[in-house]
Amino acid sequence: MTGIIPTIRVPVDLTNPGQFFACCGLLELADRLWPGAEGWFDGDAFCVTATDGSLASAVQEIANCVVENTMTPNERHRLDELSALTKEERIDASEKEKKLLESLRRELPIVLSGKLRFLVDWFCDEFSGGSRFKTWAGQQSVLDIAAAMHAGLTATRSEGEISLWNLARGIGLPFNFDSDLGGQGSALDIGFSFDPLAGSKATRIETSCKPILEFLCFVGLQRFRPREEKGENRFVYTAWNTPLAPSVAAAVACQAIQLSGANSYEFRLLYRTKYLKSFLPAQLFQGDRDE
């Protein structure tokens, strides 16, 4: 207990890594909305102290922002032009150009604009290993997934109340950061892929997900990362227990800074295929293993 009264208090299951990193994302964006915001974990709750801040206003401001990628306006316009042509109307050169622009649309970093301005590019980071947490396949569009989860932010309100963990149906395919859903409904589990069925309402399979969790976790992973146990598919994060700004909290979360009395948790990635992954539930970290 810190003795500080939080302006935002969110129940959290710390054995769900998606919830943990979503709380990190909430703190990240709260600090941009209300400079100087600090956050901490207090038992089964995540707390944020921010002048004039509230969970409702934070979610509303996040919902008000625009989700795009780093394509230029000219590139977007050119892709629209080429997409409007039939394949017969496009010459070989323009067909190659269209495929290049489509790959940029799928793969480029995501930008939040409006009152909140934030760049998310951790999934492009091969150097320091951020890309290992990319849970989607190469032909899936990170922009489409992020935009769908962002659009679902307002679909989880119930009688005026807001929860970060409410389910929504028919929002779109999630990132699979939520470990409560991470082991369900994959193409490998079911025997066929959802993707070819998504183009028609008659065949589309509507899935449930927690869009605020998925979106905030996607944001949180930009700065906050777990510590990796090299070669073991084990990742460790620490739930800091004293009010900290995002810059310091991120160092504690990955155990670059040790904090007395703070619990740590470890989780694994579920490899559905070579490319598709999900976050699995975490357990209390018992310390490094002697091999």
Write the layout of secondary structure elements.
Elements: E1 8-11, H1 17-33, E2 38-42, E3 45-49, H2 55-64, E4 66-69, H3 73-84, H4 92-107, E5 110-113, E6 118-120, H5 142-151, E7 168-169, H6 187-190, E8 208-209, H7 211-220, E9 227-229, E10 234-238, H8 246-253, E11 264-267, E12 269-271, E13 277-279, E14 283-284
Helix pairs in contact: 1-7, 3-4, 5-7
Task: Name its key features.
alpha+beta, three-stranded antiparallel sheet, single chain, 291 residues, 30% helix, globular
Structural features, described:
- It contains eight helices and 14 strands.
- It is an alpha+beta fold and about 290 residues long.
- The chain is about 30% helix and about 15% strand.
- A four-stranded antiparallel beta sheet has the order 9-10-11-14, with no helix packed on it.
- It has helices at about 15-35, 55-65, 75-85, 90-105, 140-150, 185-190, 210-220, 245-255; strands at about 10, 40, 45-50, 65-70, 110-115, 120, 170, 210, 225-230, 235-240, 265, 270, 275-280, 285.
- It is globular.
- About 35% of the residues are buried.
- Among the domains are: about 10-55 and about 165-280, no CATH class; about 70-105, no CATH class.
